[in-house]
Amino acid sequence: MNFRKLQVLLLAALVVTFTACYPDDSEITNSSGTPKSVDPFLDINAFVGTWKLETVTQVDENAIVQKQPDYMQKMVLSELFNYDVTLNLSRPDSVGKFAPYTVTQNGEAPFYLPGGTGQWRLNLIGTPRINMTNADTALTVYPAPAFRTSDNKLTLKIDRMAGNTKVSSYVYAFTRSN
Protein backbone atom coordinates (compact mmCIF):
# COMPACT_ATOMS: atom_id res chain seq x y z
CA MET A 1 0.00 0.00 0.00
CA ASN A 2 1.49 3.32 -0.99
CA PHE A 3 1.65 6.40 1.23
CA ARG A 4 -1.14 8.25 -0.67
CA LYS A 5 -3.69 5.45 -0.05
CA LEU A 6 -2.73 5.35 3.62
CA GLN A 7 -3.35 9.10 3.92
CA VAL A 8 -6.79 8.79 2.33
CA LEU A 9 -7.76 5.90 4.64
CA LEU A 10 -6.61 7.80 7.74
CA LEU A 11 -8.53 10.90 6.66
CA ALA A 12 -11.68 8.86 6.04
CA ALA A 13 -11.37 7.24 9.46
CA LEU A 14 -11.01 10.65 11.12
CA VAL A 15 -14.06 12.04 9.31
CA VAL A 16 -16.20 9.05 10.32
CA THR A 17 -14.99 9.30 13.92
CA PHE A 18 -15.74 13.01 14.30
CA THR A 19 -19.10 13.00 12.51
CA ALA A 20 -20.25 10.16 14.76
CA CYS A 21 -19.60 12.40 17.78
CA TYR A 22 -22.17 15.04 16.84
CA PRO A 23 -25.74 14.42 18.04
CA ASP A 24 -28.61 14.36 15.59
CA ASP A 25 -31.15 17.19 15.85
CA SER A 26 -33.55 14.69 17.38
CA GLU A 27 -31.05 14.04 20.20
CA ILE A 28 -30.86 17.72 21.23
CA THR A 29 -33.80 18.41 23.50
CA ASN A 30 -34.79 21.30 25.65
CA SER A 31 -36.22 20.85 29.10
CA SER A 32 -39.88 20.94 28.13
CA GLY A 33 -39.96 19.31 24.72
CA THR A 34 -40.88 22.62 23.06
CA PRO A 35 -39.55 23.37 19.56
CA LYS A 36 -35.84 24.04 19.53
CA SER A 37 -34.07 27.07 18.10
CA VAL A 38 -30.96 26.92 15.94
CA ASP A 39 -29.10 27.29 19.24
CA PRO A 40 -30.05 24.26 21.34
CA PHE A 41 -29.32 26.20 24.55
CA LEU A 42 -32.14 28.69 23.96
CA ASP A 43 -35.52 27.48 25.12
CA ILE A 44 -38.41 29.07 26.94
CA ASN A 45 -37.50 27.44 30.26
CA ALA A 46 -34.20 29.30 30.28
CA PHE A 47 -36.09 32.60 30.53
CA VAL A 48 -39.16 31.91 32.68
CA GLY A 49 -38.73 32.90 36.33
CA THR A 50 -37.81 35.76 38.64
CA TRP A 51 -34.56 37.62 37.96
CA LYS A 52 -32.56 40.10 40.04
CA LEU A 53 -30.48 42.69 38.17
CA GLU A 54 -26.77 42.41 39.00
CA THR A 55 -24.93 44.67 36.53
CA VAL A 56 -25.71 47.22 33.84
CA THR A 57 -23.13 48.11 31.19
CA GLN A 58 -23.46 50.94 28.66
CA VAL A 59 -21.62 50.33 25.39
CA ASP A 60 -20.66 53.20 23.07
CA GLU A 61 -21.00 51.60 19.63
CA ASN A 62 -19.23 54.50 17.86
CA ALA A 63 -16.17 54.12 20.15
CA ILE A 64 -16.03 50.43 19.21
CA VAL A 65 -16.14 51.26 15.48
CA GLN A 66 -13.38 53.83 15.99
CA LYS A 67 -11.35 51.28 18.00
CA GLN A 68 -11.13 53.56 21.03
CA PRO A 69 -9.65 52.17 24.28
CA ASP A 70 -11.86 49.90 26.44
CA TYR A 71 -12.54 52.60 29.02
CA MET A 72 -14.15 54.71 26.27
CA GLN A 73 -16.16 51.80 24.82
CA LYS A 74 -17.87 50.56 27.98
CA MET A 75 -19.10 52.06 31.23
CA VAL A 76 -20.46 49.94 34.07
CA LEU A 77 -23.50 51.95 35.16
CA SER A 78 -24.18 49.69 38.12
CA GLU A 79 -20.97 51.07 39.68
CA LEU A 80 -22.40 54.60 39.40
CA PHE A 81 -26.07 54.01 40.25
CA ASN A 82 -27.87 51.85 42.77
CA TYR A 83 -29.96 49.41 40.75
CA ASP A 84 -32.71 47.55 42.56
CA VAL A 85 -34.61 45.84 39.74
CA THR A 86 -36.51 42.56 39.62
CA LEU A 87 -37.81 41.03 36.38
CA ASN A 88 -40.47 38.30 36.46
CA LEU A 89 -41.14 36.44 33.22
CA SER A 90 -44.23 34.19 33.31
CA ARG A 91 -44.55 31.03 31.22
CA PRO A 92 -46.51 31.40 27.98
CA ASP A 93 -49.46 29.10 27.27
CA SER A 94 -47.81 27.85 24.07
CA VAL A 95 -44.73 28.48 21.95
CA GLY A 96 -44.64 31.86 20.22
CA LYS A 97 -47.44 33.33 22.36
CA PHE A 98 -47.10 36.38 24.58
CA ALA A 99 -46.98 35.90 28.36
CA PRO A 100 -47.13 38.41 31.23
CA TYR A 101 -44.04 40.01 32.71
CA THR A 102 -43.45 42.40 35.58
CA VAL A 103 -40.54 44.80 36.11
CA THR A 104 -40.16 46.22 39.61
CA GLN A 105 -37.67 49.07 39.93
CA ASN A 106 -36.87 50.86 43.17
CA GLY A 107 -34.85 54.02 42.66
CA GLU A 108 -34.11 56.47 39.89
CA ALA A 109 -31.25 54.67 38.07
CA PRO A 110 -31.56 54.77 34.25
CA PHE A 111 -33.29 51.60 33.07
CA TYR A 112 -34.66 51.02 29.56
CA LEU A 113 -36.74 47.85 29.80
CA PRO A 114 -40.46 48.65 29.65
CA GLY A 115 -41.42 48.99 33.31
CA GLY A 116 -44.47 47.86 35.22
CA THR A 117 -46.42 45.04 33.66
CA GLY A 118 -46.65 43.95 30.06
CA GLN A 119 -46.35 41.04 27.69
CA TRP A 120 -43.23 39.22 26.44
CA ARG A 121 -42.43 36.42 24.01
CA LEU A 122 -39.34 34.57 22.87
CA ASN A 123 -38.89 34.81 19.11
CA LEU A 124 -36.52 32.17 17.72
CA ILE A 125 -36.99 32.94 14.03
CA GLY A 126 -33.70 34.30 12.71
CA THR A 127 -31.71 36.02 15.44
CA PRO A 128 -33.12 34.95 18.84
CA ARG A 129 -34.82 37.91 20.53
CA ILE A 130 -37.38 38.77 23.14
CA ASN A 131 -40.25 41.09 22.26
CA MET A 132 -41.55 43.10 25.23
CA THR A 133 -44.57 45.38 25.15
CA ASN A 134 -46.53 47.34 27.71
CA ALA A 135 -49.11 50.12 27.41
CA ASP A 136 -46.46 52.69 26.37
CA THR A 137 -43.56 50.82 24.81
CA ALA A 138 -42.65 48.02 22.42
CA LEU A 139 -39.04 46.89 22.62
CA THR A 140 -36.85 44.11 21.27
CA VAL A 141 -34.06 42.79 23.48
CA TYR A 142 -31.42 40.23 22.59
CA PRO A 143 -30.43 37.39 24.95
CA ALA A 144 -26.81 36.33 25.25
CA PRO A 145 -25.87 33.49 22.90
CA ALA A 146 -25.61 29.92 24.24
CA PHE A 147 -27.74 30.66 27.28
CA ARG A 148 -28.40 27.57 29.38
CA THR A 149 -31.09 27.11 32.00
CA SER A 150 -28.55 25.60 34.39
CA ASP A 151 -26.44 28.79 34.39
CA ASN A 152 -29.15 30.71 36.32
CA LYS A 153 -28.00 33.83 34.46
CA LEU A 154 -29.91 36.01 32.02
CA THR A 155 -28.18 38.64 29.93
CA LEU A 156 -30.31 40.98 27.83
CA LYS A 157 -29.00 43.58 25.39
CA ILE A 158 -30.94 46.63 24.24
CA ASP A 159 -29.78 48.62 21.22
CA ARG A 160 -30.42 52.38 21.29
CA MET A 161 -30.85 53.81 17.79
CA ALA A 162 -30.63 57.25 16.21
CA GLY A 163 -32.52 56.69 12.99
CA ASN A 164 -30.94 53.60 11.43
CA THR A 165 -27.66 53.98 13.32
CA LYS A 166 -26.92 52.05 16.50
CA VAL A 167 -25.58 54.66 18.94
CA SER A 168 -25.28 52.68 22.15
CA SER A 169 -26.24 49.42 23.76
CA TYR A 170 -27.19 48.52 27.30
CA VAL A 171 -26.33 45.08 28.64
CA TYR A 172 -28.38 43.93 31.64
CA ALA A 173 -27.02 40.92 33.54
CA PHE A 174 -29.53 39.18 35.82
CA THR A 175 -29.26 36.19 38.16
CA ARG A 176 -32.15 33.86 38.91
CA SER A 177 -33.73 34.60 42.27
CA ASN A 178 -36.17 31.68 42.42
> What percent strand?
35-45%
Radius of gyration: 21 Å
CATH architecture designation? Beta Barrel
Shape: extended
How far apart are the first and last residues' alpha carbons, in Å? 64 Å
For the largest beta-sheet, the strand count, sense and barrel status come to: 8 strands, antiparallel, barrel
Per the CATH scheme, the topology name is: Lipocalin
- Number of helical segments with 4 or more residues: 3
Descriptive overview:
The chain has 178 residues and is mainly beta. The chain has one domain: Lipocalin (Beta Barrel), CATH 2.40.128. It is built from three helices and nine strands. It has helices at 3-19, 61-65, 70-73; strands at residues 49-60, 74-76, 84-89, 99-106, 116-123, 129-133, 138-143, 153-162, 165-176. The longest helix is centred in the first third of the chain and has 17 residues, at 3-19. Mean pLDDT is 80; it is low at 20-40.
